[in-house]
Design goal:
Blueprint: E1 9-14, E2 26-31, E3 38-43, E4 58-65, E5 68-76, H1 84-108, H2 110-115, E6 123-129, E7 137-143, H3 151-160
C-alpha cells in the first residue's frame, strides 16, 4: 500500500471555502509520476482541466441521501486502455493507492471535516467504472474516519520532512 505524505499535497479551492458548501462539493485528486506530488482540487465542479489521458485521477463528491449524505468516488478502470490484462493492472493500482488517496482528501479538506464532524462517519461508496462487467464494480470503502491522519502521524512526517 502507498503511504500518504502531507508534504507532497497541494490543495486548491475553486469557488468554495474551506468549510462550505457541502452540496455541491467535488474533489479531483491527481498526481505527478515524476515528483510524487499530489494535487487536490476542491470545487463546485470536478477539475476536468487537471485530468490527463491516462485517467488515473480520483474523483469524489458528496451526495444527498435523504437527510444524510454519502460520499461517492469514481475511478476509471478503462482509462484509455482496453485489454483485460491492462484493466486488471489498473484496478490493482487503484486498490493499492486508494487508501492514501482517501487520506489525502480527508487531510486536504480537514477544516471542512472540523466544521462538519458528522461527515467523518458517512459511507464512502467507490465506483470502479469500466465498460467490461468484470471490472465495473461498486464497493463500500468505510468512512473518512478510517482515513483520518492522526496528530502523531502528521508529527512523524513533519519531523522527517526537510523544511
Amino acid at each position: 500500500m502507498v503511504n500518504f505524505n502531507p508534504d507532497d499535497l497541494y490543495i486548491e479551492f475553486v469557488n468554495v471555502t474551506a468549510t462550505e458548501p457541502i452540496i455541491p462539493r467535488r474533489y479531483t485528486l491527481t498526481h505527478s509520476d515524476l515528483t510524487g506530488d499530489q494535487f487536490l482540487t476542491i470545487g463546485l465542479d470536478f477539475a476536468y482541466n487537471r485530468i490527463n489521458p491516462n485517467r488515473d485521477e480520483v474523483m469524489g463528491e458528496w451526495i444527498q441521501d435523504g437527510e444524510s449524505y454519502l460520499y461517492y468516488v469514481y475511478l476509471y478502470v478503462n482509462g484509455r486502455y482496453t485489454t483485460p490484462e491492462v484493466k486488471a493492472v489498473r484496478e490493482a493500482i487503484f486498490r493499492n493507492n486508494l487508501p492514501a488517496a482517501l487520506e489525502a482528501i480527508r487531510y486536504g479538506d480537514r477544516r471542512f471535516f472540523t466544521a462538519h464532524p458528522e461527515l467523518d462517519n458517512i459511507p464512502i461508496i467507490v465506483y470502479f467504472l469500466s465498460t467490461d462487467p468484470n471490472f465495473n464494480k461498486t464497493e463500500n470503502w468505510g468512512t473518512f474516519s478510517d482515513y483520518n491522519m492522526t496528530f502523531a502521524q502528521r508529527y512523524r512526517y513533519n519531523k522527517k520532512s526537510p523544511k
